[in-house]
Amino acid sequence: MRIKKKLxxxxxxxxxxxxxxxxxxxxxxxxxLAISLSSxxxxxxxxxTFWPKEFSLTSYExxxxxxxxxxxxxxxxxxxxxxxxxxxxxxxxxxYPLSKEKNEFSFRTFYAWTFFITMIxxxxxxxxxxxxxxxxxxxxxxxxxxxxxxxxxxxxxxxxFFRITPKxxxxxxxxxxxxxxxxxxxxxxxxxxxxxxxxxLFSLVGHWNSWFDGLIYMNNPGNYPLQSYIQTVVVQxxxxxxxxxxxxxxxxxSDKTLKSAQIFLGxxxxxxxxxxxxxxxxxxxxxxxxxx
Length: 292
Known about the structure:
The structure is a single chain. The protein is 69% helix and 0% strand. The protein is mainly α. Helix 8 packs antiparallel against helix 9. The longest helix has 35 residues, at 2-36. It is globular and about 70 Å long.
């Protein structure tokens, strides 16, 4: 009974702690949403907390009427769709051979260090820009994807995940006549969904939040991803792409509500995607791979 009582107290304290952590994560977004839905005058006073005051959709109406906003949204959606798929594909196909022993892949250590060094030493901004320009990628979606096509950190995560996978699974596949490609796609990929979901989430968040590469690789503002667009309009206050009517309306909108509206809209897609990937984090490594 004493042990059970102590265990009950642990569960209570643990639940309270997790609720507080969840509140710390959620309340800032609720605060941003409340400001974006409040009137400009009230938002400017700084009295809005977690509930809108003098409810107003003016900031959202202004954002929704801007074609440039939706164009940048489409660019970002294209970027995470292509970038996420390429990142996961390359990370998986690179991690699989690097996870093998030296007697199976003689140059494993050499290639592993080659990839690892790129995490410590980079070519620099100017050489990277020159390479992208010489390849003719300026003002194309590929300029936002190909420079970071191989996420080395994700490769390391999958490499370590593959190395702790029971060798009996791959050995049984080889005995049945499967090659490396069949073993990868039929054995390793299905049981590696927790790790793949994790690196996919890293990739999606990284591509969605990236804004600097859009500024340097895109000469045409119409090709900006969403975060680059928000940075130019909200942070730099660059009104060059605004029509006279839009500039007049924006002058009447509180800078605080406009920023909050665009920040919330910019984070909303990732918030919607996360619950679908989060379920994979709690699954076991070989769940369903061995039966009987």
